[in-house]
Structures are given as C-alpha cells and as structure tokens.
C-alpha cells in the first residue's frame, strides 16, 4: 500500500489533502457545513476536503483563502477541520482554496529542523521533548533534562551535517502490530492511525504535521537561545529562511557596531568591553567631581540660624551620595532638606529628609502639585518629579 493510500485510510472526517501532497496549495472542495458563532461574529466552515493544516501538535495553522476570502484560523476536532472566516459560505457551495506556500514551507523547515535537534538530543543524552511550539515568531522545544551549551553546539553541528547529506524524510502509517516493533518518540501513548516521520539515522517520531521531502530543504539549523525551564531546558531554534534572516539582522548590527567603534568585526565584543570600562571610569570621575561640587554647595547654604529648610540642585549623582548628603544636612538643619539631581528637560531624582518634619506630608503635596512619583517614610522620601527648578524653589519658599 503506497503513501497516499495509507494517508487516506488513516484520515477521518475531512479529507486531508496535505497528507496526500504536501506541496498542494490550490484545491476545490464542497462546503459540508457553515456554523455561525454569534458571540464572536465568525463562521466555522467544514469542507469535504482541505489542504489547510490546522493548529495541532504545537504548530499554528496554515494561512490562505477560500473563494478569495481570508481564512483566519483552522482547528481540528475528531478529524474534522473547521475553517474560521468572517464571511458565510452556504452548505453545498463549491469553493476554491489557496494555501500560503511561503508560510507552509517556512513551517516545514522549522518543524523538520526541530525533529533533528530533538532526535539527536534523545539519542545522545536520553532527553525527551516534552513541549513544542511553532508560530510565526518563534520555535521552542522543551527538554526534560539539562544540557550544556557545549553539548548543544555539538548537536547543532551534527544536525547541520545531516542537513547537508540531504537525507530523505520518510512518512509512513504503520499498523498496530508494526508499531510494536518501532522505537519511536511520542509524547502520547498511541496505538492506531499513527503517522511516523523518519529521518534515517537521526530521528523516528510520531507527528501529524507537514515536513520537507529531504533534509537539504531545511537549509540551515541554528540554536539561538537556551534557558532553564521546569527542571529541564527550553531551546529556541531557527531554520532555513528564518536562520538566514536572523544572521542578516545580526550581521547588520555587527557592521554598525564595528563602524561606530572603529574595530574589526571579530573584535567588536572586546571593543565594547573597553568602551564600557572607559564609561565606568568617566562616570566615577564625574561623580567624584559632582560630590566635591556638592560639598561646596552645601557649605554655601544659609546657616541654620537663617533658615530651617534647605534645597539643592545638582547634576547626575548616584543615590548613595545623595542619601549621604541629605543625612548630613538633616544633622545640621531642623526642617526639610532636599537634593534634586537632574535638569528641567529630563526631570529630577530627589531625596528629601528631615529630623523633625513629616516628609510624607511633603510627598503628598509634591504629588498634588507636580505629579511626583515615589515614596518613603516620615524621616525620608525619594522619587522622581518633572517640575522645573524654579517651580520647586517657589514651593520650598512656602514651607
């Protein structure tokens, strides 16, 4: 029995044309049912046959049109495909369908690449794929154990070596008896109508989704991220066109950074480290100078006999230095002692303290008059405000 007959025999409900010919994008079919969803304002169209792969097995549905109208989504229930649309297609109507091939092939590249990575992780380290997600934006696979970055790079190299060998991707529908002799990967315990995807020497897995004909059609497999996830790891991959687009985007960034730093491309990381270190040292020097200036400003303030409330405006200064300065002022002045760091254009970070006044009352007033944000306690408050220095000085004069 050939592949098409197997597919037809194992299909139930809607005839699934994507199992008969994964490359078929245009088809005609008859509407069997058109169910309105009054709450959502959509129609769910059932056809006698469809080339649209539904959302299933962690993969998003195909996109395309029926009679030129957009198919918003495709779902499956008990073997029946439901095409979500905004227009009504009455039962008995013959329709023309079109599947977006670029999206279909992109998903085929990603899914086949995922099988290769998952299969190799299983054969080398005994890891099981316990979660898979494929959408327009990302491809993730969740493994039930830890794997190091070095191990993943070896897996990536091996997977791409198999890509370049252009191995066949075989599809079969084994009988229940034949399944008993197969050591295949599956998240669920399956006994009948099982579709097996085989990449010789790489992976054997139960899967419902369309795949490439040969591994060479994947083009390239790239692991782009890995992180701990529920006792194992979540791996992000990109394959084929997505991998090329990602490389192009990152290459453009490297070119731009290389030009900005006047560094050769392989040396941009070291150049960034040097720039960061220079910036850190410059910031330390600026903070030291600002702290010295703050001391001069504090010494120039009126004496405690002349005023009990004091206010200072400074440039950017770290929070510890601001807090220490305010604490020093509260030992000398009995009223509100405030320091505002920043400028009128970008706003100010502030710390206000007092040894005898309730700073929370001042915080309330600043919120009411200037929409200031922040908080604290009676002895000290801190936050941000977008008022001008002149407006803040006028308020201080009324304290």
Tell me what the structure shows:
- With 399 residues, the protein is an alpha+beta fold.
- The protein folds into three domains: 3-99, Beta Barrel (Elongation Factor Tu (Ef-tu), domain 3); 104-254, Threonyl-trna Synthetase, Chain A, domain 2 (Threonyl-tRNA Synthetase, Chain A, domain 2); 282-397, Diaminopimelate Epimerase, Chain A, domain 1 (Roll).
- 37% of the residues lie in helices and 28% in strands.
- It has ten helices and 21 strands.
- Strands 6-5-9-2-3-8-7 form a seven-stranded antiparallel beta sheet, with no helix packed on it. Strands 17-18-19-21-20 form a five-stranded mixed beta sheet, with helices on both faces. A four-stranded antiparallel beta sheet has the order 10-11-16-15.
- A hairpin with a 3-residue loop joins strand 20 and strand 21 (380-385).
- Helix 3 crosses helix 4 and helix 6 packs across helix 7 (268-299).
- The longest helix has 32 residues, at 268-299.
- The protein is elongated.
- The relative contact order is 0.07.
- The model is unreliable at 1-11 (pLDDT under 50).
Considering the chains and any ligands shown, give keywords for the structure:
3 domains, Elongation Factor Tu (Ef-tu), domain 3, alpha+beta, elongated, Threonyl-tRNA Synthetase, Chain A, domain 2, five-stranded mixed beta sheet, Diaminopimelate Epimerase, Chain A, domain 1, seven-stranded antiparallel beta sheet, 399 residues, 10 helices
SSE order and pairing:
Blueprint: H1 3-10, E1 15-16, H2 17-20, E2 26-37, E3 42-47, E4 49-50, E5 64-66, E6 69-71, E7 73-77, E8 80-85, E9 94-99, H3 101-125, E10 129-134, E11 139-143, H4 149-164, E12 170-172, H5 176-179, E13 196-199, E14 203-206, E15 221-229, E16 232-239, H6 240-261, H7 268-299, E17 310-314, H8 319-332, E18 337-343, E19 347-353, H9 359-370, E20 373-376, E21 380-385, H10 389-397
Parallel strand pairs: 1-4, 17-18
Antiparallel strand pairs: 2-3, 2-9, 3-8, 5-6, 5-9, 7-8, 10-11, 11-16, 12-13, 13-14, 15-16, 18-19, 19-21, 20-21
Helix pairs in contact: 3-4, 6-7
């Amino acid at each position: 029995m050939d592949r098409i007959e197997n597919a037809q025999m194992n299909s139930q409900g809607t005839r699934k044309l994507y199992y008969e010919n994964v490359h078929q994008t245009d088809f005609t079919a008859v509407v069997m049912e058109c169910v309105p969803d009054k709450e959502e304002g959509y129609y769910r169209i059932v056809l006698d046959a469809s080339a649209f792969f539904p959302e299933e097995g962690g993969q998003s549905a195909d996109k395309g049109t029926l009679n030129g109208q957009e198919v918003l989504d495709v779902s499956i229930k008990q073997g029946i495909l439901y095409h979500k649309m905004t227009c009504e297609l009455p039962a008995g109507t013959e329709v023309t369908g079109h599947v977006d091939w670029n999206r279909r092939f992109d998903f085929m590249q990603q899914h086949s690449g995922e099988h290769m990575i998952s299969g190799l992780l299983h054969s080398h380290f005994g890891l099981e794929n316990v979660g898979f997600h494929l959408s327009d934006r990302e491809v993730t696979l969740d493994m039930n154990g830890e794997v190091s970055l070095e191990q993943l790079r070896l897996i990536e190299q091996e997977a791409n070596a198999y890509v370049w060998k252009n191995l066949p991707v075989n599809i079969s529908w084994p009988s229940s008896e034949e399944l008993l002799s197969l050591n295949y990967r599956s998240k669920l315990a399956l006994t009948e109508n099982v579709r097996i995807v085989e990449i010789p020497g790489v992976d054997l897995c139960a899967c419902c989704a369309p795949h490439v004909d040969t591994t060479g059609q994947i083009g390239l497999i790239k692991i782009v991220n890995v992180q701990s996830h529920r006792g194992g790891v979540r791996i992000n991959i990109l394959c084929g066109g997505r991998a090329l687009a990602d490389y192009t985007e990152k290459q453009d960034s490297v070119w731009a950074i290389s030009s900005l730093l006047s560094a050769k491309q392989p040396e941009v990381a070291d150049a960034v480290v040097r720039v960061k270190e220079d910036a850190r040292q410059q910031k330390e020097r600026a903070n030291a100078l600002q702290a010295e200036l703050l001391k001069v400003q504090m010494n120039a303030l009126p004496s405690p006999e002349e005023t009990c409330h004091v206010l200072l405006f400074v440039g950017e200064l770290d929070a510890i230095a601001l807090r220490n300065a305010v604490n020093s002022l509260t030992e000398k002045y009995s009223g509100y002692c405030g320091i505002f760091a920043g400028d009128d254009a970008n706003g100010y970070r502030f710390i206000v303290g007092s040894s005898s006044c309730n700073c929370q009352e001042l915080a309330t007033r600043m919120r009411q008059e200037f929409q200031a944000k922040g908080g604290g306690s009676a002895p000290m408050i801190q936050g941000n405000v977008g008022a001008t220095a002149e407006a803040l000085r006028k308020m201080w004069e009324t304290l």
